[in-house]
């Protein structure tokens, strides 16, 4: 079931971030979206502990436009991922989200 939920999270986020599932008024984001899902989904999904991401995840984070991706997070995606974990992963990887950045309905403290 873990693989199934990871695949669902990955597919949903790929569709949202890539622009296949439209978010009004927003284009597509730059970066390795498939890589983010493959390498980082396990570190941001619900439930589970907050853990430091792998080097592979960090390499992909560093190549991706995370603030743009944040702007494409829908309520349904936000139910599957833990936004505190997203903030932790980006900070750990050296690409922290600025305070006040909005990711879906979540605002980075």
UniProtKB/TrEMBL annotation:
Keyword Signal in record: yes
Gene3D superfamilies reported for this sequence: Plant lipid-transfer and hydrophobic proteins
Superkingdom of the organism of origin: Eukaryota
Pfam family, one: LTP_2
Domain named Bifunctional inhibitor/plant lipid transfer protein/seed storage helical: residues: 19-103
Protein name, as recorded: Bifunctional inhibitor/plant lipid transfer protein/seed storage helical domain-containing protein
Ranges in coiled-coil conformation: none
Signal peptide: 1-22
InterPro entries: Bifun_inhib/LTP/seed_sf, Bifunc_inhib/LTP/seed_store, NsLTP-like
Keywords attached to this entry: Signal
Signal recorded as keyword: yes
SUPFAM superfamilies noted in UniProt: Bifunctional inhibitor/lipid-transfer protein/seed storage 2S albumin (SSF47699)
């Amino acid at each position: 079931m873990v693989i199934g939920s990871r695949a669902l999270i990955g597919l949903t986020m790929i569709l949202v971030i890539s622009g296949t599932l439209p978010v009004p008024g927003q284009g597509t984001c730059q970066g390795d979206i498939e890589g983010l899902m493959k390498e980082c989904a396990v570190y941001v999904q619900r439930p589970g502990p907050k853990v430091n991401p792998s080097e592979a995840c960090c390499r992909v984070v560093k190549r991706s436009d995370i603030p743009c991706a944040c702007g494409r997070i829908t309520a349904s995606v936000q139910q599957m991922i833990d936004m505190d974990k997203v903030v932790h992963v980006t900070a750990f990887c050296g690409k922290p989200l600025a305070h006040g950045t909005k990711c879906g309905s979540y605002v980075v403290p």
